[in-house]
Amino acid sequence: MNKLITAEHESSLSLSECQKIVDNWINTIGVRYFDELTNMAILTEEVGEVARIMARRFGEQSFKQGETVNELADELADVLWVLMCIANQTGINLTDAFKANLHKKTQRDILRHKNNSKLK
């Protein structure tokens, strides 16, 4: 099997690099992308898995017998993976989208949270 992550990327990957790695994996190992609606359903399922773990690990629910406690990182990676699939399929560069979203939030919330008495 070809190596998908090179040595130079082992410690740090940009969002664009991750999108390229996902695309390469899909096209060489995964055969093809699932359609967008299927990926949306998979994303929903993966977010549900994150919610299940969060409720048990940080909330008031307890883990069921046999459940693995340390699954959170894997489930978050699954969410990121499917999110990147959807971005790739819809032509969205997540680096550009993230930068634009950060700018929007900064402009909108520059004083909002500082002035929120509930956060003091």
Walk me through the structure.
Helices cover 59% and strands 0% of the residues. The N and C termini lie far apart (53 Å). 6% of the residues are buried. The mean pLDDT is 90. The chain has helices at residues 15-28, 36-57, 72-90, 94-109. By secondary structure, the chain is an all-alpha fold. Helix 1 (15-28) packs across helix 3 (72-90) and helix 2 packs antiparallel against helix 3 (72-90). The protein is globular. The chain has four helices and no strands.
What features would you highlight for this structure?
120 residues, mainly alpha, 0% strand
Q: In percent, how helical is the residue content?
A: 55-70%
Coarse morphology: globular
Mean pLDDT: 90
Tell me about the largest β-sheet: none
> In percent terms, what proportion of residues is strand?
under 5%
Tell me the number of helical segments per DSSP (H or I, 4 or more residues long): 4
The count of DSSP E runs of length 2 or more, i.e. the number of strands, is 0
Query: Could you list the spans in which at least 5 consecutive residues all have pLDDT below 50?
Result: none
Structural class: mainly alpha
Give the H and E element order. HHHH
Using only C-alpha atoms, the radius of gyration works out to: 18 Å
First-residue to last-residue Cα separation:
53 Å
